[in-house]
Amino acid sequence: MKRLLLTAAFAALATAAAAGPLLAPVFTDHAVLQRGQPIRVWGVAQPNAAVAVDLSGATASVNADAQGRWSASLPAREPGAPLSLTVRAGADAQTLTDLLVGDVWLCSGQSNMELPVRRAMGGESEVAAAADPNIRLLQTGRVSLPAPTSTLPREAVWQVASPATASNFSAACFFMGRDIKKTTGVPVGLIDATWGGSVIQDWISREGLTALKTYDEGLSVLSDYARSPQAGMARWGAMLDAWAARVEPHAKAWARPDFDDRAWATLPAEAFWETAPGLATFDGTIWLRAEITLTAQQAAQGATLSLGPVDDIDTTFVNGKPVGSSEGWNAPRDYRLPKGALKAGRNVVAVRAIDTGGGGGAWGPAAQKGLKLDDGSFVPLGSSWRYRISTTLAATGLPPHAPWLGASGLSTLHNGMIAPLAPYGLKGMAWYQGEANVTEAAEYARLMPALIADWRRAFAAPDLPFLMVQLASFGAYKSAPAESGWAALRDVQRRTTAADPRVGMASAVDIGDIYDIHPTNKQQVGARLALLARKLAYGEASLNAAGPAPLSARRDGEAVVVTFDQPLTVFGGARPLGFELCDAAVCRFVEGAVDGATTRLATPAGLTPTRVRFAWAESPILNLYGVNRLPATPFELKVD
């Protein structure tokens, strides 16, 4: 198993210059090496060279293979004085100093894990107090690649915690590590591998996604892109067209130059479409059309069509012919037009714009939108678009993303940010992600266990503790039961935790911000992760480290009784808030009474409940807590 993992880690190292560093880039001065297990080190030397490794007196001798790849295992060590690590191969040598032995935690996910210490609650004072010689920090930086690498950016090195090094480090990770160090008294190494807005699919390896058997086409396109970006982009454009033909057949003619769009409304060319009446919260597909009039001399020239950014995905047509597709909310679109695309007189530009969340549409300065002709002149597109709604995201589901695009692709963040670390020795992993996947909770139920298994394989640790943060509250309060993608994804996180005794979940649902998707109380997130670590990684098996989770829901006469895994406490009143009973057609809020670890729910007249829900909303109001004053997890259960 370790041989296979190290072979993967060597994929790019084997191409390194012979005179380069002997150790893999994850090994630098000031690193923390995982205590209590054999210490794996690896790198690249001259082909077939004899390699000698010395870790402050603990030695190993190995031979590099025909590609120069080598790996060695040194005896396990416990914390103590700083160490040095020297590797020699022939005339080449490399020495690292100020290495500590302690516990290493990998922290990853999207923007709520990425949010830095300086932006956390009380950030200025937290940064000022961040110095600690026994906390070491490594940030991978944002790296997206179509194939795995074993290299890291030059600036990605281990650093001693200080105001300067902690300021931009993950706040949740730093506060978790700080609490772990207080509890254990041993040095802590923290690795920040985060990318805001990223989907979980981009953090899973190609092998992990292949095993799911539903990402083969996207992975094939990614392979094409790795060989030829033009070929990959063409295949993805065809996938996007096929998706559009399926979900919006009514729009088939909307790109044609002879289509009559005079009844369409108008939208300023430089604004997100949320500024238009009725579109304040619109996510989905809208078509935009505009006209450019050219002389025969202008039309005969080569030209590039510049649209500025289009949020999030566009397919652009000129006179009914597709000229390009792109993805990225802030990436300017510049499409080189094929010969013959333009004509003298009226030319029609049509854009199928797909917004998958947040702002949408073609935005940016109107003066920069138009045709850049090869003679250096510029023909503006105009100050407005005509537009028409095609379909909503709720009706279509997500479109196929460009699989090579960092944060929304397939495996590219694993390739660039996780692969270079593996199989470095770890104590555990912490994960805060899911906001980018709230529209696909059912798929997340496959992806979350797949990521956990994938990373454990990568780091040669099948039982490695994995800690996740359950999504914080965000969005308006609701006065009536309703479907909620946020609640559904939180329930997937709960079920994933319940299915694996080495997975823990720290709920953040009670410390969110209904107005801000990035709540700043990361101290409490870190404290809750550290509490889970005590239970799963540090032997405190009997510790109640999470809020109450449901065990069962059963009928008892006219009532439904929900049993939890720990005694319950109701704050702010005698009755718990947020329980719903549901049949196949409707859910209703119900009264409940707490007795120890159970809650008895009164069934409304005329309802035969088949399901019970709790805290089923984007921003639920909670007053049900457990023995450690942690909130009960949102859930949906079948009533037995």
Any overview of this molecule?
This protein is an alpha+beta fold and 640 residues long. The protein has 14 helices and 34 strands. Strands 1, 3, 4, 6, 7, 8, 9, 10, 22, 23 and 24 form an 11-stranded mixed sheet that branches. Strands 11-21-12-17-14-15 form a 6-stranded antiparallel sheet. Strands 13, 16, 18, 19 and 20 form a 5-stranded antiparallel sheet that branches. A hairpin with a 4-residue loop joins β28 and β29.
Which helices and strands, and how do they pair?
Layout: H1 2-9, E1 32-34, E2 39-44, E3 50-55, E4 58-63, E5 69-74, E6 83-89, E7 92-109, H2 111-114, H3 123-128, E8 132-139, E9 159-161, H4 163-166, H5 171-184, E10 188-194, H6 206-210, H7 216-227, H8 229-247, E11 265-268, E12 284-294, H9 296-299, E13 303-311, E14 313-318, E15 321-327, E16 332-336, E17 345-355, E18 361-362, E19 370-373, E20 378-380, E21 384-392, H10 393-396, H11 412-418, E22 428-432, H12 441-458, E23 466-470, H13 485-498, E24 503-507, H14 522-536, E25 550-556, E26 559-564, E27 569-570, E28 579-582, E29 587-589, E30 592-595, E31 598-602, E32 611-614, E33 624-625, E34 635-638
Helix pairs in contact: 5-14, 7-8, 12-13
Concise description?
The protein is an alpha+beta fold and 640 residues long. 21% of the residues lie in helices and 31% in strands. The strands form seven sheets. Strands 1, 3, 4, 6, 7, 8, 9, 10, 22, 23 and 24 form an eleven-stranded mixed sheet that branches. The chain has a six-stranded antiparallel sheet with strand order 11-21-12-17-14-15. Strands 13, 16, 18, 19 and 20 form a five-stranded antiparallel sheet that branches.
